[in-house]
Amino acid sequence: MSETPAVAVNEKALARRIKDHIVGSSHEFFAVVHPGFVDTARQELLQLGIKATKEQETGGVAFAGKLEDAWRANLGAGTLSRVLMRLARFKATGFGEFRARLTAIPWELHLAAGARVAFSIQAGRSRLWHEGKLREEAARAIAERLASYGRQADLSPARESDTTACQRVFIRIDENRCQVSLDSSGELLYKRGLGKLTEGAPLRETFACGVLREAAIERCRVLIDPFCGSGTFALEAGAIFSGRPVNSGRAFAFQDWPSFKPARFQHLREELAREFKEHTPAGPRKIYCSDIDPKAAATARRNLELAGLATLAEVDQADFFHLHPPACDPAGVLLVMNPPYGARQEHDADIASLYRRIGDKVRRDYAGCAYAIIVPGLEIEKALGLPHEKKIVFHNGGIPVALLIHQTPPRL
Fold first, then answer.
1. Any domain includes 355
2. Same domain? 72 vs 164
3. What's the gap between Cα 355 and its chain centre?
4. Do 299 and 392 sit in the same domain of this protein?
5. In what order do the strands lie in the sheet with 313-317?
6. Which of 169, 176, 208, 174 is nearest to 192 (CA)?
7. What is the mean pLDDT of the chain?
8. Domain total of the chain
């Protein structure tokens, strides 16, 4: 990019525009959600006080609100993958029109001086389909707009090895209609900022949170995970049981926006922590997790220690089929299972036989408990042979699976 020309900029006027048009105004946001869990995410946003939810869109849920609503969603909604701020919608049939429309977006209000900018572009069923050319024109438009305000951004293509934090602009074109958004989250929100260690093919935290919330984890006092792997279910349940906003320990892209107010964000973080504590049911909670693999059990134990949940959870190296259920009221127990399948299962393993044994074990030793079990395919579901009131079908790691949920009646 060329050198920024000398431009006289009224910084006070720019600050007023940011205050009036970004901080003080309502915006449209779109929260990206794991397929199958859109309704779960909508309910979670409502619990966070984000009431202006709209009809769900493909791949997520839209809502309107102020910047602080986006901060709340990023901090406290465990099922969201990322939160996008909608900047513009327009129709474009040529690259010149596309660049002019992008140049009209007030990037000086959204991007700080010197910001590193990256692009995520999807184009299909449109005259503008060349993603490389679209990226080139988008970078040119942003550079020109910022230069007119004495600003410059790093718009050079990111290298795969580059770990520098950046502001990501999402551009989606379909049937010549363009949607431009700015990512408020930064790294995907399943990265909770806990320094988690992993084993095998771990579940994403956002997905695990969706499973637990669909299974009404808030009604339970005990979680049992006998195929715990790295402990993802235990970590998410621990955050819920302890009344902790799931993402309170990580950073977000919006913290580098010109509109960001550190003091206000810290106040919101503390306010949200109090709200979570107040809404957490009283009484003791306990998590029991185990895995037949000693390395996985050790990793889960370490992850729970790193998350400050060691006193809430017990981790054992054990075979599920040799385990005895804890001595507690089964009506308050949620049994959650993601047994081995796909890459986690040995090639010659009889997966139908494994799930048949799981079904027998649950009927025999966990009668009266609620359960949420991930099952890879209808034939395996038949082999499991367990009743369920709710079934959510989706893909996990490219494999079609179903989440089967059985809930116990709430206590009167």
1. yes
2. yes
3. 29
4. yes
5. 313-317, 286-291, 222-225, 333-337, 370-375, 399-406, 390-396
6. 208
7. 92
8. 2
Q: Are residues 58 and 149 in the same domain?
A: yes
Contacts of 67 (CB under 8 A, 6+ apart): 22, 23, 27, 254, 259
Q: Is residue 345 part of a domain?
A: yes
Largest CA distance in the chain: 77
Alpha-carbon gap, residue 192 to 188, rounded angstroms: 9
pLDDT for 267 equals 97
Pairing of strands 117-124, 167-174: parallel
Residue 410 has pLDDT above 70, yes or no: no
Give the burial string for 333-353 (b: 16+ CB within 10 Å, else e): bbbbbbbbbeebeeeeeebee
Query: At CA 169, angle to CA 167 and CA 170, rounded to 5?
Result: 140
pLDDT at 163: 62
Specify if 99 maps to a domain.
Answer: yes
Token code pair at residue 111: 């991007």
> Does any domain span residue 331?
yes
Of the residues 132, 148, 183, the one at which a domain ends: 183
The reported pTM is 0.93
Give alpha helix (H) positions in 104-204: 107-110, 131-147
Domain that holds residue 346: 205-242+280-406
Would you give the DSSP letter of residue 167? Answer: E
Q: Please report which confidence band the pLDDT of residue 2 belongs to, taking 50, 70 and 90 as the band edges.
A: very low
Tell me the two tokens of residue 2: 């060329």
**To which residue do tokens 């029109």 refer?**
97
Residues 6+ apart with CB under 8 A from 164: 116, 158
Q: Say whether pLDDT at 84 is over 70.
A: yes
Residues 23-28, mean pLDDT to the nearest whole number: 96
